[in-house]
Structure formats: structure tokens, C-alpha cells
From TrEMBL, chain A:
<feature type="domain" description="ABC-2 type transporter transmembrane">
    <location>
        <begin position="25"/>
        <end position="396"/>
    </location>
</feature>
<dbReference type="GO" id="GO:0005886">
    <property type="term" value="C:plasma membrane"/>
</dbReference>
<feature type="transmembrane region" description="Helical">
    <location>
        <begin position="263"/>
        <end position="285"/>
    </location>
</feature>
<dbReference type="InterPro" id="IPR051449">
    <property type="entry name" value="ABC-2_transporter_component"/>
</dbReference>
<keyword id="KW-1003">Cell membrane</keyword>
<feature type="transmembrane region" description="Helical">
    <location>
        <begin position="209"/>
        <end position="230"/>
    </location>
</feature>
<feature type="transmembrane region" description="Helical">
    <location>
        <begin position="320"/>
        <end position="339"/>
    </location>
</feature>
<keyword id="KW-0812">Transmembrane</keyword>
<dbReference type="InterPro" id="IPR013525">
    <property type="entry name" value="ABC2_TM"/>
</dbReference>
UniProtKB/TrEMBL annotation, chain B:
<dbReference type="InterPro" id="IPR017871">
    <property type="entry name" value="ABC_transporter-like_CS"/>
</dbReference>
<dbReference type="Pfam" id="PF00005">
    <property type="entry name" value="ABC_tran"/>
</dbReference>
<dbReference type="GO" id="GO:0005524">
    <property type="term" value="F:ATP binding"/>
</dbReference>
<keyword id="KW-0067">ATP-binding</keyword>
<keyword id="KW-0547">Nucleotide-binding</keyword>
<dbReference type="InterPro" id="IPR003593">
    <property type="entry name" value="AAA+_ATPase"/>
</dbReference>
<dbReference type="InterPro" id="IPR003439">
    <property type="entry name" value="ABC_transporter-like_ATP-bd"/>
</dbReference>
<dbReference type="InterPro" id="IPR027417">
    <property type="entry name" value="P-loop_NTPase"/>
</dbReference>
<protein>
    <submittedName>
        <fullName>ABC-2 type transport system ATP-binding protein</fullName>
    </submittedName>
</protein>
Length: 421, 309
């Protein structure tokens, strides 16, 4: 155990000497997250920062004993619900012109005009005449409002259909109008009004796009960091220190474990720092800290093991670098770091659940959504098994690996041949 | 202390070392000589357990290396010909790290680091990064790491290549002291014949993976009927003249490299006559040097090439 710690501390000491490494470790992901945060909407970097203007002219429908106005429900209940408040704030315009002016003056992102006959049109399933106007750079905000409206109208139609069917049933079974009103009230209160946001899988409850991007970047950057550490392993071969280590009584599993621990340690530092900074800057909630840490360790294990294996197999630094880019972008794409896995072609979607970064991404998202160990257990097990498999492979290969040195006096020649027999 | 028994190393159809056997006793300094690619480093790597012999067995202090590598490794220190150091760390950090791999820790480790820094005469500079050291100082640290476990057997693979005379002399003195004071057995490979000549009691000469000569320096000289060496530099010579050199009386073998001629001549030959005959062949000589039988001439006689080739 002592020797494992010494190998880990050795890497840590060397990395500490590199003044830029830890800066890169934390600074680069943070800069990218901040840039993406701004691209996704404003100073606080979340999609909740836009303003919605509503001008409601709906007169409702009073043909029944109980007057009804879907316009008012939309304006006062849906747009000002608790969930909606976390995404945007609503301002009421006095006229259509004022609404348009607020958009033109960039004082609001989206303007919703609810026409006079909105309720009647909805009841009669006709064109409802609602108008959504958005500024030039606010298409994302507009899509959110559009989704909310579509959802509202769909739910309303479902409720009306149910109500109609129930009315028919009640009339035939001899129930009174009073009973029907009571049931109608119940239907109204139970009618769901959900707000769509960015979601990675069908099980997930919505989280903000900014949070998704942050998690995706954290997961992606750790692959890049692991490759940086793989370079250190290759350096050890090229500097002949591996030759020296092999001639000491240190066991091979101690070397491999020590190296893996240093990769885990560095990745945990990176991810913890980014998670903490995201929390401090953007106020993001990441869920249970212990489970976040466990996920981070297992994810670092699952990517650290194969990358360490590659570091030990690689002939030189070029071999590591040449593989780093395709792996980084390939895994980034398939794992959902660049696009949501739902946006991938159907044939590629299952891959997200198989690769380590996709698994980790799903774990983080589930934890952010407030899920617990039971929900991420399978993903964690997969990460653990993946890491263990590659660790065994690394130990097996490292055991049989021989280093051939060139016995000559040409000391400028930094070549070393590595071969597996 | 060290016994190699019929060691062979093969890479597919290439044989790097073939059937090499020798022994090194306690407190003995053994020189291993050979031109580039002869197989010296392969032998050193097999002793250091970096490579596995295809055939044969190695014993260290009577313990089989293949059966108990851990115990063997604790008894020996290896100085590779390359600088196997962490350049971004200090000399103290390097010594501490490798010392810890030999199971040293706490005060014992710190004490040993101080002792080794003292041996290396780097006590005042132990906390300086190795990258800031001169070539000679780096070589000393490279050497010092092998001393961390107080080894009974020290394997030195070209430890003095490319260093200043002061550091070289320091390393050679330390090796002698270790032998005399601690009874350390040393296997020493070098291109510098004069180092081997003054340091080693016995030598083994390796060429094309085979041990072609083994014995004490004097024993080899007698056994091989070795020659004296006449080295001459020239400014002008035609190819025919160079071919005629071997016909000169007393000359046994010739070797020409750029503007340098090396002649192996029978001991007791008249040097001035040979030089005169060389002039008569049409070679314009600029200088010449005559040496009595030494390892260089033995080596040249055995391998047909200079050790520095």
C-alpha cells in the first residue's frame, strides 16, 4: 500500500511542478462553461433569464352556468406558475402595440398575444389565433413558450374530450347538473400543466440546459485530462525511469494502481472544482454530494483504466496524441456531450448507455434531478465493471511487457522500443 | 555474488545474447566490454529483470532470479546508461522516491538520502531540481539512486558517458570505495578502455551476443598472444598503400578509420623501422603513438574493430 501511495504522490509532485497544469485543469472547463452559459442566455447563464410579455384580450365563454376563460388561465396560472417562474418572468402589456414595442426595444424576449375569441376557438376546436412574437436572438426562448402553449392546448383538449364523454355518461345514468359541475371542477384542478425543458432520457425530470451543458463539459474534459496523464506514463518510458522502477522490488500491480490512483485523484479534483464553481457562479444544484463523489470516482476509474492501458502500450507521445482527439470527439458525440442522446440517430442511442462518459452523464443528470442510489445503481455498476475489466487487462499486459533498450552511446537518441511478448 | 549460467536471449529469429556464462565474486569489479550492439545492455537488462532470458539462469547471492526476483532485486542496484531520473524533481525527491520503492521509509529513508547525497558530494544541492544540474551532476544522481538500498551487487552500464573529468573521477573513486569498504560486487560496462583497465580485475568481452573472452587482464594478454598497438594519423594515402601495410614485418593486423591507422604489432618489434616502412609505402604520416599490450589491443585483436566504433 505504501508503494502505491508513493507512486501516486510522485505524479502529484510532478504535476504540482507544472505551473500550468492545474490551471488548465480547472480554468479550461470553466471558461467553456461560462462561454456556453452566456450563449444560452444572459448574464446568469441560465435559460430562466428571459422576459415574457402577455397581452390577453380573451373574453372567455359564459354560455354555461360557470363562465370559463382559457386566456386568463394561461396568463395567470400557466405563465405564472412556480415552474415557469424559474425559467422566465411575465409582464402584462396594456396593448398589442406595447407588447411589440417591448420586443423591439429588447426589453422582453417573447410576446404572446391571446385573441378575443381564444376560449371559444379552443372549445370549438378551431384555430385559436394566438400569436407568438420573439426577438432575433431569442429563438430558444420562443421555443420554450411554444412548447408550453402546445402542451397547454393539448391538455385542454384532452380535458374537454374527457368532460364530454363524462357528460354523456352522466346524462344517460340520470345524474344531476350539480354533480357534473363538481366532477368538472375536479378535472380542472387535476389538469397537468408541465413545462418542457432539456431532458436527456425519458426517465429524467427536466433540468436546465445550462446544467446539462456543465455536466457534459465536466464529463468531456475529464477524458482530455486522463489523456494528459497518459502522456506522463509514456514520458516515464522515454525517460527510462520505468526501466529503473522495474528493476526495484516494487510490484507491477503497485505501479499500475499508483498510476491509476493519481488519475482518479486528478480527475476528482477537476470535477469537484468545476462542480463547486458551477454551484457558486450559477447556483446550480447537483444533488447528493456523496453520490456525486461516488459517481466521479467510478467514472474516473472507468476512463482512467483504459487510458492508462493505452499509455503503457503507446510507443511514444505521438501515439497517445493521435488517439486522444478521435476518442475525445467520438465519445463526446456518442456520450451526449455535444448533442443530447435523444437527438442522436436511433441506432446510435443505445451506445450512450454503454460508454463510460454516457453512463456518467446519465448518473449526474439523474442526481441533479434529485434521484438517489437506486436510480443510478446500474450505471455505477457498469462504470465499475468497465474500470475493473481494463485494470485486469492492464495488469496482465504490463506483466508481460519487456522494454528493449538500445545499448549504445548515442545519448541524444531518445528512442525506446516497447514490445509485448 | 552473481552467476550467469548459459544465458540466451532471442527475439524471434534474432539472437541478442547466446549462451553467456560468467561469475562475479564478492568485492570483485568485473568489466564487461563489447562494441555497440554486442549484447552488453541486454545482459544488464536480464540481470535487472527488465528482460526475461529465453534460456539459462541467473543467480544473485545464490538466489535464483527467476524464482525469487523480489529478493534478488533488494540485493542489487542498477545504474542504466541513460539518465533514468525525474528531471522536474529535486535530487532529494528522486532519491527518496526510489528509496521508498526499496522499502525504506521515515527516518531511515531520510538518513539514507543524506548519506547518499554526501557520497555524491551533492549535500548542498540536494533540494535543487535535477533539470538545473550539469551533465556530470545528473550522472552522479543517476549513480546515487542505485546506492539507496545499500546493494551487495552493483550493475553499472556505461555510467560515465559524456561527463566532466571531475564527476568521472568521483564516480570511479566511489566504486573503488564501495568495493573496499563494503565488499560490493560490481559489473561495469564501459566504452572507456582505460576505465576498465584501471578499475576491473577481470573482464569479459562480448561480441555478436557471444562471450568471446573471459579472464583477468594479464591472463587475457598472455592467453591471446596479444600485440602492442601502433596508432598513426596521416594526411595522405592511396588505397594501395594502405593495403600494403599488412606486408610490413612485425605487423599482424591493420585497421583504418578516417585519417587514423591502427596496427597491431608483435611485442618487441622495432617501432621506428615499422614507421619508416609505412612512409615508404607512400603514406604521409603526421603523428604516431605506440602502446604496449592493453585491453584495447586485445579487444581489437578479438573483434577486429575499435571499442569506440
Amino acid at each position: 500500500m505504501d508503494k502505491i501511495i508513493h507512486f501516486t504522490l510522485l505524479d502529484f509532485k510532478q504535476l504540482m511542478k507544472s505551473k500550468t497544469f492545474y490551471l488548465k485543469l480547472i480554468l479550461f472547463p470553466m471558461v467553456l462553461i461560462i462561454l456556453l452559459g452566456r450563449a444560452l442566455g444572459g448574464s446568469d447563464g441560465t435559460i430562466s433569464s428571459f422576459s415574457l410579455v402577455v397581452f390577453n384580450e380573451d373574453v372567455g365563454d359564459s354560455s354555461n352556468s360557470q363562465p370559463i376563460s382559457f386566456g386568463k388561465t394561461l396568463e395567470n396560472k400557466v405563465f405564472q406558475s412556480k415552474d415557469a417562474a424559474s425559467l422566465f418572468h411575465t409582464v402584462t402589456a396594456a396593448s398589442y402595440k406595447e407588447g411589440i414595442n417591448l420586443i423591439q426595444d429588447k426589453k422582453a424576449s417573447v410576446f404572446v398575444y391571446i385573441p378575443k375569441n381564444f376560449t371559444k376557438a379552443v372549445l370549438q376546436q378551431e384555430n385559436n389565433g394566438i400569436v407568438i412574437t420573439a426577438g432575433r436572438d431569442t429563438s430558444f426562448d420562443k421555443s420554450i413558450i411554444t412548447s408550453i402553449l402546445e402542451q397547454f392546448l393539448r391538455n385542454t383538449q384532452v380535458t374537454l374530450t374527457e368532460e364530454k364523454a363524462l357528460g354523456t355518461l352522466l346524462n344517460t345514468s340520470g345524474n344531476t347538473v350539480a354533480d357534473m359541475t363538481k366532477i368538472q371542477k375536479q378535472l380542472n384542478t387535476s389538469s397537468p400543466v408541465t413545462i418542457p425543458e432539456v431532458s436527456t432520457n425519458p426517465k429524467a425530470i427536466p433540468i436546465s440546459a445550462m446544467q446539462y451543458v456543465s455536466i457534459a463539459m465536466v464529463v468531456l474534459f475529464s477524458i482530455s485530462t486522463a489523456f494528459t496523464l497518459a502522456h506522463k506514463v509514456v514520458e516515464e518510458k522515454l525517460n527510462y525511469t520505468l526501466f529503473r522502477i522495474k528493476s526495484t522490488p516494487a510490484h507491477q500491480f503497485q505501479y499500475v494502481s499508483g498510476k491509476l490512483c493519481s488519475i482518479l485523484f486528478t480527475l476528482v479534483i477537476q470535477m469537484s472544482a468545476v462542480i463547486l464553481l458551477c454551484r457558486l457562479i450559477y447556483g446550480m444544484t447537483w444533488g447528493n454530494p456523496e453520490l456525486i463523489l461516488l459517481t466521479t470516482i467510478l467514472y474516473a476509474f472507468s476512463i482512467g483504466s483504459p487510458i492508462l492501458l493505452w499509455g503503457l502500450l503507446a510507443k511514444d507521445q505521438n501515439a497517445v496524441s493521435s488517439l486522444a482527439s478521435p476518442i475525445l470527439f467520438g465519445l463526446g458525440f456518442l456520450g451526449g456531450s455535444f448533442v443530447s442522446s435523444n437527438a442522436l440517430p436511433k441506432s446510435l442511442q443505445p451506445i450512450q448507455n454503454l460508454i463510460p462518459n454516457g453512463n456518467a452523464l446519465n448518473c449526474y443528470l439523474l442526481l441533479c434531478e434529485g434521484k438517489g442510489f437506486a436510480d443510478i445503481g446500474d450505471n455505477l455498476l457498469q462504470l465499475f465493471l468497465m474500470g475493473t475489466l481494463f485494470l485486469i487487462l492492464t495488469l496482465f499486459i504490463f506483466r508481460g511487457k519487456e522494454i528493449i533498450r538500445h545499448g549504445n552511446t548515442n545519448h541524444d537518441k531518445k528512442t525506446i522500443k516497447a514490445a509485448i511478448f | 555474488m552473481l552467476r550467469l549460467k548459459n544465458i540466451t536471449k532471442k527475439y524471434k529469429d534474432f539472437t541478442a545474447v547466446e549462451d553467456v556464462s560468467f561469475e562475479v565474486g564478492k568485492g570483485e569489479i568485473f568489466g564487461l566490454l563489447g562494441p555497440n550492439g554486442a549484447g552488453k545492455s541486454t545482459i544488464v537488462s536480464m540481470i535487472g529483470t527488465i528482460l526475461q532470458p529465453t534460456k539459462g539462469e541467473i543467480f544473485i547471492d545464490g538466489i535464483s532470479l527467476s524464482e525469487n526476483p523480489h529478493d534478488c532485486k533488494t540485493r542489487m542496484g542498477i545504474v542504466p546508461q541513460e539518465l533514468a531520473l525525474y528531471q522536474s524533481l529535486t535530487a532529494r525527491d528522486n532519491l527518496e522516491f526510489f528509496g521508498s520503492l526499496y522499502g525504506l521509509y521515515g527516518n531511515r529513508l531520510k538518513q539514507r538520502v543524506s548519506e547518499v547525497l554526501d557520497i555524491l558530494k551533492l549535500t548542498g544541492k540536494g533540494n535543487q531540481e535535477v533539470s538545473e544540474y550539469s551533465g556530470g551532476m545528473k550522472r552522479r544522481v543517476n549513480f546515487g539512486i542505485a546506492l539507496m538500498n545499500s546493494p551487495k551487487l552493483l550493475i553499472l552500464d556505461e555510467p560515465t558517458v559524456g561527463i566532466d573529468p571531475q564527476s568521472r573521477s568521483h564516480i570511479l573513486d566511489t566504486i573503488r570505495r564501495l568495493k573496499e569498504e563494503k565488499g560490493v560486487a560490481v559489473v561495469y560496462t564501459s566504452h572507456y578502455m582505460e576505465e576498465v583497465e584501471c578499475l576491473c580485475e577481470r573482464v569479459g568481452i562480448v561480441d555478436h551476443g557471444n562471450l568471446i573472452a573471459l579472464g583477468s587482464k594479464d591472463g587475457l594478454k598472455q592467453e591471446l598472444d596479444a600485440c602492442d598497438t601502433l596508432t598513426a594519423s596521416f594526411s595522405k594515402a592511396n588505397p594501395d598503400a594502405l593495403k600494403r601495410l599488412e606486408t610490413i614485418r612485425g605487423v599482424k593486423r591493420t585497421s583504418v578509420e578516417k585519417d587514423m591507422i591502427t596496427l597491431l604489432v608483435s611485442p618487441g618489434s622495432n617501432v621506428l623501422d615499422i614507421v619508416e616502412d609505412m612512409k615508404n609505402t607512400g603514406i604521409r604520416l603526421t603523428s604516431f603513438q605506440y602502446e604496449e599490450i592493453n585491453l584495447e589491443s586485445i579487444f581489437l585483436q578479438l573483434t577486429g574493430k575499435s571499442l569506440r566504433n
